[in-house]
Design a protein that fits this description.
single chain, about 230 residues, mainly alpha, Arc Repressor Mutant, subunit A, Four Helix Bundle (Hemerythrin (Met), subunit A), 2 domains, 10 helices
Length: about 230
């Protein structure tokens, strides 16, 4: 290797609009910006230290993605999620993750199990440190990893179309846990069933995991949304 051919790290040079988009999208899907929360352009432009033009462009993209909406007399707000939205999202999520787990458990690959256990270990460590934001991030990674390990490219594409909304609801759901360590422990039986190649048990566990999460959110959604609105 010559002196001039040395490998250098890639310098990310995204347009400002895309950087603003990344910040706002992450804040929404992580639950930092709540459904119904008003996004005042002047205020957010000042907070981000930018002009209103790239912010407005980012909000237009988020609107097309269904993460924000324009409400009469309130302007742009983080899109509200109805109980029907939650029920539809979680019924679809159950189908997608059940299919993924069937494929992963049938293979029972030790390397797959290692990756899933790593997610669990990191999630538990973050929970024990009281770091909910990191718990949410690793929780999302666990479920993304299940989809990836299925080795089904079309499933991955389908998952990507709903994953942002799944992440948003997962983060909002996790805020309601009084013991965030339980968030991590809820994943352990699924990993163990996959490790044992017990496809039927793994499928039952992932369906129960998704259903219980969806029921918890849907049952409390109307009340919590009314409380979040200002």
């Amino acid at each position: 290797m010559t002196e001039n051919s040395a490998v250098l790290p890639h310098i990310e040079n995204k347009p400002l609009r895309e950087r603003v988009l990344d910040v706002l999208r992450d804040a929404i899907v992580s639950g930092e910006l709540k459904p119904g929360q008003q996004l005042v352009e002047v205020e957010f432009a000042a907070r981000l230290g930018i002009s209103r033009a790239p912010l407005r462009e980012a909000l237009q993209i988020l609107s097309r993605e269904g993460l924000v909406e324009t409400v009469p007399y309130r302007g742009t707000v983080v899109r509200q999620l109805t109980k029907t939205d939650i029920e539809e999202l979680y019924s679809l999520r159950s189908v997608l993750e059940t299919f993924a787990v069937q494929r992963v458990a049938a293979r029972a690959n030790p390397e797959d199990v290692t990756r899933l256990r790593q997610c669990f270990d990191e999630m538990l460590a973050a929970a024990e440190a009281g770091d909910l934001k990191t718990v949410n991030r690793i929780d999302r990674r666990f479920h993304d990893t299940l989809i990836e390990l299925s080795g089904h490219s079309l499933l991955g594409v389908t998952w990507s179309t709903v994953s942002m909304r799944v992440r948003q609801v997962m983060a909002l759901r996790n805020e309601r846990n009084t013991d965030i360590r339980q968030i991590a422990y809820n994943h352990l039986p699924i990993i163990e069933a996959i490790e044992q190649g017990d496809e039927a048990r793994a499928v039952r566990l992932i369906q129960e995991h998704v259903a219980s999460s969806g029921d918890l959110v849907a049952e409390n959604w109307d009340e919590s949304q009314n409380g979040d609105e200002s």
